[in-house]
Amino acid sequence: MTSSYRTETSGWIIFAATMFAIVGVFNFIQGLVFLVEDTWTVLTPDSILVFDLTTWGWILLILGVVEMVVSWGILSGQTWAQVVGIIIASVAIVLNVLSLSIYPIWGLIALVLQVLVIWALAVHGDEVATP
Fold first, then answer.
1. I want to staple 129 with a disulfide (CB 3.0 to 4.6 A). Which of 9, 21, 56, 114 is the partner?
2. Nearest-10 crossing angle of helices 104-124, 11-36
3. % of the chain beyond a pLDDT of 90
């Protein structure tokens, strides 16, 4: 008698879930930092710019929690998590392209990682082990 259950999860799925967990933790921490230190000052040759980061802090805090939940969902084989993961990674690609002039190397690295996450979820999304 053969079993129709998978006994091994694809390494690409583990990669995608791990990336979401790591980025989720970083976004959560950055969100907390922005809430605690909510004013950012930039000196330019012509003026001083002051930014209020409270809104970004809440956005990053919530996004971090969502990314950690999506990470768990991906490893659990949840279709909703794969769809949400692809959407979040797609939005992150757009944001990374917009920030390439500010952080070219980090932006390029993040862009490549997001493309790999989308590819992993789209191609290997059904390769999650089930009990």
1. 9
2. 140
3. 24
- DSSP state for residue 130 in the 8-state scheme: -
- Tell me if 4 is assigned to some domain: no
Predicted TM-score (pTM) of the model is: 0.75
* Owning domain of residue 26: 11-123
Question: 80-128, pLDDT tens digit by residue?
Answer: 999 999 999 999 888 878 777 767 887 788 888 889 989 998 988 777 7
Q: How many domains does the chain have?
A: 1
- 37: in domain: yes
Pairing of strands 48-52, 39-43: antiparallel
Cβ neighbours, 10 Å, residue 15: 16
Please name every residue paired with 51 in a beta bridge, in sequence order, or none if there are none: 40
